Every structure is written in structure tokens, then in C-alpha cells.
Amino acid sequence: MAKITLRQLLDHAAEHGYGVPAFNINNMEQGLAIMEAARTCDAPVIIQASRGARSYANDIMLSRMMEALTEIHPNIPLCIHQDHGNSEATCLSAIRHGFTSVMMDGSLLADAKTPASYDYNVAITERVACMAHWVGASVEGELGVLGSLETGQGEAEDGHGAEGSLSHDQLLTDPDQAVDFVTATRVDALAIACGTSHGAYKFTRKPDGGILAMQVIEAIHAKLPNTHLVMHGSSSVPQELQDIINKYGGEMPQTFGVPVEEIERGIRHGVRKVNIDTDCRMAMAGQFRKVAQTSRSEFDPRKFLKPAMDAMRDLCRDRFERFGTAGNASKIKVIAMDEMAKRYAAGKLDPQIATAKAA
């Protein structure tokens, strides 16, 4: 078995200067595509599931699929992560089903759409971190609210995302507050707000510093050089995928995502985890449309799913290579969760003090 905690994986990434894409999944085909991409380039993996994905796939089915993926690819360290947990119960149930890492998104209330106060965020994230660390699981927190600097609006995905108008201060994480937050909560990774958002329609033009505030990441990293930063909503929405979808009957309006070169810039300034979902959906959906248009008599689901898996595999491999993840799986000796629990208890894994070296 090669399940790894987020903390150990991101410690290794920090030590060796790379980032790790975190791919959302809902089904077996996506999991197989991600792991095949990782196998071909020797990359460690973060697979994450939202509450919506857990409901869609069923926790038992999802957890057993994850276990099967580790058996199929025993040499690939795999972190299984809860994306956007909205409560203690959500996070603890994920750990109970074999997740090695959870995100407690206290930037929103439990309804997953109402912005929360800073005190609420600190309190609930600290409670989850305390409970998770007792069993060696990692915790990601979020400070700031995901949303568009162009429109001042949040963007929901799988039922999670702020509703209504957001202030400029809410949309950008404050570097000084980030220091206080990490110190108070002892999170292993910090998701920050810098103008990225969920879904395909992030920007109406190629983003610049006015609508994608990479300088916020640099400022936070300067104050928290040993804290692992996370970019949410970081699909690049490649033009070629938009073109394939529209060529074969789609009607996607022109849109822009987060350029890969901006993500690479973030990795140079402490970003260690990069969330990607929309790109994978687009890669698969484009192939579904292509098969439906070019083989109109086809009804075998496998004839749709196989090219879709291949397209997603190729996209994932590209991100592994661009982010520097490739070539690192075989360098990591996985530490068991019970040993990680001992290290937390001994105070050896405080991100404010030092970045622990992966064994």
C-alpha cells in the first residue's frame, strides 16, 4: 500500500522545489487515468473528492476504489484528500473512510455558501486539525473566499461556493492574518484567495495582476516560508479543449483560466498543491462529444470512455511534468499515519517552525 499524507508529500515537494496537482474525481475512469499518468512519469499523486463526489459515488465505493488504485500502482504514493469539507463531521467521516487528508473550509459557514467570520474559521479549523492530527491525518485550511476579482462574485461548484457579492478584502488573503491563522490552527497547508475561482468561467480575458493577484502569494510566502500554500480553482481551461468541445457540438463561450506559467510562478513562491477539476472534465467531455458526432451509431460506453480516459491521462501527465512532480514518486519513502500521529504529538510538524524533511 502506498497511501501518503498530504503533509509528508508537501514536505517532500517543498524540500525539492516542486508542486503537486490535486485532481478531483467522481468515478473509476478518472482515477485510472490519473494513476496511469503518474505511472508513466513517476509522479506522486493527490486525488481529492468533494462532498458532491462522495455523494455521487458513495463513500464505500469511493474508498474501495482508492484502495484498489494503491494496489494496482503500489509504487505511487497516493494522498486521498477531502476537498472543501464544510464541518467537523464531513472531515471525520472522510478519515473514517480512508482519506489521509482533509480540507476544513471555514471561510464559509456549514451551508457552504455564506462567508464566515475570521473567528469562526479559526475555531472550527483548529478543532479539525486537533482531531485529525491525533490519527496522523493532514489538514488544509482556507483563508479568504474564492471568487472573481472581475465581478466581485463567488463561484459555486458541487454545491460549494460563496453566494452574492464579495468585498475586495474577502477575495484576497491578508498576509499578516495568514500568519495568525496558521499559528492558531496548526494547519499543514493553507489555501489562499488571489482571484481564482471554481469552474470554467474564471476570467473574461487573459488574466493580469489586476484580476489574478499572484503578488498576494509572494507576500504570504515571504511571511510564511515554511507553510505549504494551495491554489484552488486553478484549471487552465486550455483553448484546445474549448475548441474540441465546440467543434463537436458544444456551445462554450470564450473563457480564460489560470495560465500554467502563472501556476509555475506560484510554485516558485511556496505553492505546493494546485487544485484541478474543470480541465479534466473538459478533456473527457470533448472526447464524449467527438465520439458521439463521428461514430453516430456507437452505443458501447467503453468506446466513449476509453478515448476520454486517454485525453485525461495526457492532461494529467502534462501537469505532472510542468509542475515538477514527475520523477519524484520513487524518491519518497512513505511514512505510516500512526508514525505521523506520533510526530504531531511530539510537536515535530509545526509548519511555523520548520519544514520537516520527508524520510
Model description:
Helix 2 packs parallel to helix 4. This protein starts with 5 loop residues before the first helix and ends in a 14-residue tail after the last helix. Mean pLDDT is 93; it is low at 353-359. The longest helix has 22 residues, at 301-322. It is 45% helix and 12% strand. The chain has 359 residues and is an alpha/beta fold. The chain has a single domain (6-342), classed as Alpha-Beta Barrel (TIM Barrel), CATH 3.20.20. Strand 4, helix 6 (118-134) and strand 5 (138-143) form a beta-alpha-beta unit.
Outline of this structure?
By secondary structure, the protein is of the alpha/beta class. It has helices at residues 6-16, 28-41, 51-57, 59-72, 88-96, 118-134, 168-171, 175-185, 214-223, 239-247, 260-267, 278-294, 301-322, 337-345, and strands at 20-24, 45-49, 78-85, 101-104, 138-143, 189-192, 228-231, 271-276. The chain has a single domain (6-342), classed as Alpha-Beta Barrel (TIM Barrel), CATH 3.20.20.70.
Helices, by number, come to 14
* CATH top level label: Alpha Beta
User: How can the largest sheet be summarized?
Assistant: 8 strands, parallel, barrel
The general outline is globular
Topology:
Layout: H1 6-16, E1 20-24, H2 28-41, E2 45-49, H3 51-57, H4 59-72, E3 78-85, H5 88-96, E4 101-104, H6 118-134, E5 138-143, H7 168-171, H8 175-185, E6 189-192, H9 214-223, E7 228-231, H10 239-247, H11 260-267, E8 271-276, H12 278-294, H13 301-322, H14 337-345
Parallel strand pairs: 1-2, 1-8, 2-3, 3-4, 4-5, 5-6, 6-7, 7-8
Helix pairs in contact: 2-4, 2-13, 5-6, 8-9, 10-12, 12-13
